[in-house]
Amino acid sequence: QVQLQESGPGLVKPSESLSLTCTVSGGSVSSGRYFWSWIRQPPGKRLEWIGCIFYSGSTHYNPSLQSRVTMSVDTSKNQFSLKLTSVTAADTAVYYCAREPEYWGQGKLVTVSS
Amino acid sequence: DIQMTQSPSSLSASVGDRVTITCQATQDINNYLNWYQHKPGKAPKLLIHDASDLETGVPSRFSGSGSGTDFTFTISSLQPEDFATYFCQQYDSLPYTFGQGTKLEI
Q1: How large is the average pLDDT for residues A39-58?
Q2: Is-cis flag, bond preceding A101, omega within 30?
Q3: Average confidence (pLDDT) over A70-92
Q4: Looking at residue A89, what DSSP letter applies?
Q5: pLDDT of amino acid B54
Q6: How far is A16 from chain B (nearest CA, A)?
Q7: Which spans in A1-95 are helix H?
Q8: Backbone CA torsion sign across B83, B3, A99, B92
Q9: Confidence of residue B82 (pLDDT cuts 50, 70, 90)
């Protein structure tokens, strides 16, 4: 059974960068069969797909966030990561990592506030 | 981006009821549609993929149908553990997009 767990700061100041890591167990990020995604849900709003990364490092980002998003994968630690720069209050959300569509993490609330 | 309109946004029902949720896409998504169940603090659970294929281990009271732009999700007889939020997701075109969710309440 594949399990994913998000980790990182729960509070980020405006204009700074948000960084989250997803640790994968029960499966390998090096598997060429899958891609690894980040998805978020702001309070009271629908889910928003942020983007995905393949083990090779190839990425697809949501155009609405593309200028601020970077994803990376660390095969030695079986992790993948998200960095979102220049955050504002609008980036406050529960952030999920996933191996779509079957496996998702439980989510990490990140609040952007001074 | 493909927009997904899901309705209703909330639904009150009782154990044993039949409930239906709809999702409409702004363009043909070739049946590339998932339905999920989400409970607070838990990881979303995939119930149906490809619009109508039940995920392994998911009870048969859950079903999905539709094609093109219009899709339906049905629970044939509500059980106490089914009270949750349900949402659809299209994966025909990037960026993948979601419906706004349906909160199913007692």
Answers
A1: 94
A2: yes
A3: 96
A4: G
A5: 98
A6: 25
A7: none
A8: positive
A9: very high
Confirm or reject contact between B91 and chain A (CB < 8 A): yes
Q: Which of A45, A48, A60 sits opposite B94 (nearest CB)?
A: A60
Residue pair B98/A48 in contact (Cβ under 8 Å)? The answer is yes
Q: Classify residue A26 as left (phi > 0), alpha (psi -120 to 50) or beta.
A: left
On the question of pLDDT at A57 being above 90, the answer is no
CB spacing of B95 vs A49 below 8 angstroms: yes
Tokens of A46: 């629908």
Q: Which of B59, B96, B89 is nearest to A61 (CA)?
A: B96
Instruction: Say which amino acid occupies A59.
Output: T
- Alpha-carbon distance of B5 to B19, in angstroms, equals 17
Let me know: does B101 contact B36? Beta carbons within 8 Å. Answer: no
| Burial class of residue A44 in the structure, from the number of CB atoms within 10 Å of its CB (0-12 exposed, 13-18 middle, 19+ buried) | exposed
DSSP state of B55: P
In contact, B63 and B74? CB cutoff 8 Å:
yes
B22's tokens = 């709809």
pLDDT attached to residue B106: 83
Which residues 5-34 on chain A approach chain B with CB closer than 8 angstroms? none
- The whole-number average pLDDT for the span B49-72 is 97
Region at B47 (left for phi over 0; alpha for psi -120 to 50; beta for the rest): alpha
